Please model this.
Amino acid sequence: MTASTGDYTSSTGSQRPYNDYKTSTEKIIVNGDANTIIGSYAFYQFTNLKEVEIKTCGDIKDHAFNFSSKLETVTIETCGNIGDRAFGQCSSLQSIKIGTCGNFETYAFQNCRALTSVEIGTCGDFADDDVFGTASSLSSFVITGSCGNIPEKFLYGTETLTTLSINQCGDIGKRAFNDCTGLTSVTINECGDIGTESFANSITDISIGTCGDIAAYAFVKSANLSSGGPLKSLSIGSCESIGTNAFSYLKNLETVKIGKCDTIGKQAFSIRVGLNQ
Model:
């Protein structure tokens, strides 16, 4: 495919000039340019589609591949924005690899329950915590280049997540990775501010190159301080400030290395038991 598809709706999909292929197409290859738009409902309910390979295109609009129930892999070199439910309800989707894209709209990959791996080079903003809503099998989330802000509760409670690596991002919202109980190690090269309870009660080892402000209770649950958390090792090259109780009650914390910090708040490291550095 090298040309734009045009826009449709769930009720006008039968008017697509290629609609006769909706039950037989197994792979779609898009090799266009920034003006090549994959329109709304363009491949909606392509029920035998297993692979999407996009070399270059513009925006992928709302519901473009929605309900492609056998879709397993999505590989995108370059695209524009990814719309609302563009890949929603792709219940067999396991892997997403994107080189460069624009913004992710809400529900872009909603209810992709088989999704295990997301790798993104460079992207814009994530609309909210529902971009990957109900990704109950996700084990790896990697940003190799840069992205915008990480929204509040972005992958909150994703118990299957074991790998989180971000080269560069904006602010990390409240509870973004809270209760990711399978996640033991986090590597972030550069980020903005880190919100309240962003990494509470889930991580044992965190390495951050540069960040902005670390909010109060960023690494603990403020509502249940006595339970502490499993964090053992924290390394930060530089940060602007560390808020009140940011690391309080983390009774397993053994090592903290901070190269530079302008301000450290009240009781930021209170109730230390095992801390030796």
About this structure: Confidence is low (pLDDT under 50) at residues 273-277. The chain has two domains: 1-103+116-130, 139-277. The radius of gyration is 21 Å. The first strand starts at residue 27 and ends at 31.
